[in-house]
Write a structure and sequence with these properties.
Blueprint: H1 2-12, H2 16-28, H3 32-45, H4 51-62, H5 66-79, H6 84-96, H7 100-113, H8 118-130, H9 134-147, H10 151-161, H11 170-174
Helix pairs in contact: 1-2, 2-3, 3-4, 4-5, 5-6, 6-7, 7-8, 8-9, 8-10
Length: 179
Amino acid sequence: DAAIHYARAARLSPALETLLPLADAQSGLGLVTEAASTLRKAAALAPRSAVPRLKLSGLLVRLGRDKEAMAQCARAAALAPGSAEAAEHLAELALRLRAAAAARPLLERAIFLNPRDGGLRLKAADALSRRGRHGEAEAQGDAALRLEASPEAFRAKAASLNSPKKSSLLYVELFHFLP
């Protein structure tokens, strides 16, 4: 019902305010290709807005189009240089594309924009670990541990980095930080 309502509203008044909720509804229904098309329209209507490009980037990842997702996210980050979310997503895409060297400055930017996020520090530690910079990875891991509410929360975030889709030594390396 919501998707029909949003589609009707977007037809009557195609604007960012109507297209973004429509894309969210389409995505929620599993209509990822349609949602991506809607977000492309939103980006064309609001070329200075980072939001549709950032959302489109996430959908493109779901569609397995990582390089295109990276291009859209880079554009979103350029449009919103103060967005920690865009910087983090761009860094995650760089890691996904196995570009750990490119991910490091992106993660540093995201950490600068959101210094209290322990998960970002774990991702930075992961990128550093992949490049063999274990001392720096340890320092980021230590900072992440200090920011987490509990060792369990830290373990959960560290474990999520070592999913089957990611190859990292971080999971093993960081557990020596835990009490």
